[in-house]
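2.7 Reproducibility. Because tokenized structures are sensitive to small changes in the input, we list the exact sequence used for Fucose isomerase, including any N-terminal residues retained from the expression construct. No trimming or masking was applied before prediction.
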Amino acid sequence: MLKGIPQILSPELLKVLCEMGHSDRLVIADGNFPVESMGKNAITIRCDGHGVPEILDAILTVFPLDTYVEHPVNLMEVMKGDHVETPIWDTYKEIIAKHDSRGGDAVGNIERFAFYEEAKTCYCIISTSEKALYANIMLQKGVVTD
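Resulting structure tokens (single pass, no recycling of outputs):
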């Protein structure tokens, strides 16, 4: 165990977060996301039993968001015709605001199938047991300045 590191971050996940460089991206995926098929060229990590919000909060404790792009955080857009509410997005924005002064302004949206294509190029995809729909979130790493 380490001091100051959220216990939810496994040694495997900490290693991957540390290995990632500036502009590398990761996806924290909900339980419906096709992690293994999207992550054929990525490191995949299982965080079974956990939801996206608690993983997001823990990661942002140690992971700087990119300051050189407008939206270092991206969500999967809801498909037209899908009548799905996404209150979890508000939770994400609250969590991001705790760790980044841009808060919700750091968050963008990517069309569903474009999100899948972007996910295929990510360094890491984290599988969770999140039940909320359209709860996938992509983070782009920045630089540590302090």
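The two ends are 23 Å apart (CA to CA).
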